[in-house]
Amino acid sequence: YCYGLVGIGIAFILANIFHLCICFVFVHKSSKFHFDDKYFLMSEPDIEGYIRENLPEYFAADEKLVCKEIGDGNLNYVFRLANENGKSIIIKQAGEELRISKELKLSTDRGRIEANVLQLQGEYAPGSVPKVYLYDEVMCVQVMEDMIGHGMMRTEMLNGTIYPLFAEQIADFMVKTLILSSDIVMDHMEK
């Protein structure tokens, strides 16, 4: 439910970004992870060190952690970092180019926009999107709550899964996020 709402909600909101006029002050910015304070594309071996330095309170210092890339898209790199007890976190990094073609360059700023959108959606529709713990402007990384146990809506729909409450839930989500971020409710200076 949550991953499906994230995908549909983000697609809808990004399509209406000018309407929403998202305020860019919501996300805590951090860049403690030093590789000359310069962007580079992380891989599985980099993730544990990144989290231990940028979010040290999330896992105990002596815990054994396992990282696995779980992304299935063409734009971003998504990793799950987990301890042996199943506590986990998601690290999502915006790449500078399309994964299937190095010739197609992309703006990494999309990660910042998504993190801001998720924070705003989380404020207006609590429990509907993953909580963003950190956004790193240098590395273009979002660190967020792992919605483990929830499926990707596109995958579930392709598998024929029926969600009898989906129409009600997506309508509720859209009303809460779109109305509350419109000029009807939100002061234009706040946007």
Can you walk me through this structure?
- Helices cover 35% and strands 19% of the residues.
- The strands form 2 sheets. A 5-stranded antiparallel β-sheet has the order 1-2-3-7-6, sandwiched between helices.
- By secondary structure, the chain is α+β, with helices and mostly antiparallel strands.
- It is globular.
Key descriptive features of the protein:
191 residues; alpha+beta; five-stranded antiparallel beta sheet; two-stranded antiparallel ribbon; globular
Walk me through the topology:
Layout: H1 2-15, H2 17-20, H3 44-54, E1 65-69, E2 76-83, E3 88-94, E4 97-98, E5 101-105, H4 109-124, E6 132-136, E7 141-145, H5 153-158, H6 166-180
Antiparallel strand pairs: 1-2, 2-3, 3-7, 4-5, 6-7
Helix count from the secondary structure assignment? 6
What fraction of residues sit in β-strands? 15-25%
What is the oligomeric state here? single chain
Which class of secondary structure composition applies to the elements? alpha+beta
Mean pLDDT: 84
In angstroms, what separates the terminal alpha carbons? 28 Å
Largest sheet: 5 strands, antiparallel
The secondary-structure element order is HHHEEEEEHEEHH
How does the overall form come out from the CA principal axes?
globular
* Number of extended strands: 7
Bin the helical content: 25-40%
Strand order of the largest sheet: 1-2-3-7-6
Low-confidence stretches are 9-31
Supply Rg: 17 Å
Please summarize what this structure is.
The protein is α+β, with helices and mostly antiparallel strands. It has helices spanning 2-15, 17-20, 44-54, 109-124, 153-158, 166-180, and strands at 65-69, 76-83, 88-94, 97-98, 101-105, 132-136, 141-145. 35% of the residues lie in helices and 19% in strands.
